[in-house]
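Morning!

This is the sequence you dropped in the shared folder:
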Amino acid sequence: MQAWQLTRLGDPWDNLALREVALPEPGPEQIRIRVDATDLNFADILQCQGSYQVKLALPFTPGMNSAGVVTAAGPESKIQVGARVVGPTTGPFGGYAEQAIITAAQAQLLPDGLSTMKASAMHVTYGTAWFGLHLRGNLKAGETVLVLAGAGGVGSAAIDLAKAHGCWVVAAAGGADKVSVCRDLGADEVIDYNSEDLYARVMQMTDKRGVDVVYDPVGGAYFDVARRLVAWEGRLLVIGFASGVIPSAPANHALVKNYSVVGVHMGGYRSHPDQTPFKRCYGELHQMLLDGRISPLVGGTIGMTGLPDALKRLANRQTTGRIIFNPSR
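The structure's back. Tokens below.
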């Protein structure tokens, strides 16, 4: 089969090589799938550069999550060949290939009527938003939410999910095109932080109160602005560091305003024996998709040869929504 492989750590658009490799065999508790859709993740870039929390031995195929049809199943997998699933890939057999390996216990069966592309597009972003807003952030209907990088995959999911929960949402993005995307997603207010003062605009909109929840996948300098925008007893959700800079939070500021700085690492739950949060998360999200209450933003689809350039555009923040890799396209 064909697969993209990383042979040395570094930028994937420079170091990935398209190779003919042996078809991987699933272990006893694993399944192999024909890849129909793999969503491009910023974390894939970090993993290729060697700066992600999970390290893989070289060479490996990146692509942390994938959706498709089961082509082989280990004897203890409890999932049948022919089933449609989505889930995190395992070890060196990632989703930027014609076939990938998934741990069966972490795979989610797809209900009839739900496409693999939609399932892939929402799996990480909406899963992260659900874990952040609901499991960790205890979001309540009617609360105010500020979403940074609102036009990206993670941010657009948070806008959609917060609106579906009955919240008032302010989205921040950089540039006119991304601001337009946030409006189309249904954000109540949108701020272009390339040309507007984020702090001043949010304080003006909220009568100087701030917001109940900040959803921050950016970090860096925006974290310092965001923490000052958290209202009394609010929550600042630390989703990631797309800016490349890991910020620090002064503890005295959190004490004075009585707010919480909350870490959100959905992948960290994979190593815990209790997988109930994932069942709850995707049970709710898949039903919301089928009911039309949420709609993941797909910024484009690419075939096998388009992957390196697409990852570079993702790294340079030149994409909106989720980019989907389909090797047969």
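Headline: The first strand starts at residue 2 and ends at 6.

More detail when I'm at my desk.
O.
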